[in-house]
Amino acid sequence: MTDPDEVSPDHDGWRPSRRRVLQLGVAATIAGGGALAAIATGGPPSRPAPSTTAPASGPTLAPVAPVAAGVISKRIPGTDIYLPAVGLGTFQTFDAIPEQARAVRDDVLRRFWSAGGRVVDTSPLYGLAEENIARSAVADGFQNDLFVTNKVWATGDHLGDDSHAAKSLNDSMQRLTRSAPMDVMQCHALVNVDMIVPVLHAWKAEGRIHRLGVTHHDPAYFGPMATWIQTGDLDFVQTRYSIAERSAEQRILPLAADNGVAVTVNMPLEKGRLHQFVGDRPLPDFAAEVGISTWSQYFLKWVISHPAVTVALPATSNPDHLSDNMAACRGPLPDAAMRTRMLDHLLAMPGFDRLTTQPWYPGKQYPGVMNRDLAAIRERSTWRSTRWV
């Protein structure tokens, strides 16, 4: 007998059942083997892949800018849309106060576009990042051609109040100077996720966004993230994944593959810590076999060669580093044997297993509005902790 509380979600009016609401946030028990086999064989997802078609009452999907010849691309599951496998993150790096190095950020985004980059990830929480993206994109006329993955971090005045979330979306659209609906809107760091995912489904049904997802950078939250991949009828999930932090391989990546969910990757370079670790060490000779000439390409090709990964999102404020990152999106990709060889080479280096315990952004400072305001709070607070952002 069908339980009336267990109503399957659909894209035109998704509603979580009472039982599902109680289950959300509880880590799922993941079966081994089957998901990994699906990744390895490229088999179909175990449920219908997420729809990318807006309802008849809303606008149709805007065409995605074509991928340039020779650029490695990945398909959004369940669609015929391909995205360049290396995108651009903007946390910290694009939070530049107007008087600070605006021209440098303009050059980063211009080079990104010229190199075939299309996917830009941002958030209202990233200070002035949205405005700085827009300034350069508008100047060169491609603000509506970027594939923007954005986020919402909001609660409300009361349970069921979505006005704060709606204002966040509207403000983001204005800051990005964007007329096309947001390509992907995500619940940032699972904040208020029980409320935000239903709101995202409503926005999708209304044609205000094209796709929806959830994000987190901390493996401690992979349990609830896994549950949302299984139950939230998501199109995208953004997770942390790097050659130094591989926890996503255990459940997030297999589940995304099984459920037809696209994966974007934050922290693929571990916020500068991978480069600090290798320092001036030479690349292993075998790296040339897959067209790798720098450590950035080594780290990024390792990430995007995982079959479940759609786009890696390295962030940089250095135009030359941007060009180096984008070079990882060309040439051959490592196969499974080469990926193992690449990882083993680093694991053999003393201290590699402790890399993720080091502070973010070694040797770098980003004096934007986020760090300015966080510093002011630290100055006022009597609490001293390592848990500051």
Automatic annotation (TrEMBL):
Residues 86-338 form the NADP-dependent oxidoreductase domain. The chain crosses the membrane at residues 21-40. It comes from the Bacteria. InterPro entries: AKR2_Oxidoreductase (IPR053135), NAD(P)_OxRdtase_dom_sf (IPR036812), NADP_OxRdtase_dom (IPR023210), TAT_signal (IPR006311). Keywords: Membrane, Transmembrane, Transmembrane helix. Pfam families: Aldo_ket_red (PF00248). Residues 39-58 are annotated as: Disordered. This is Oxidoreductase.
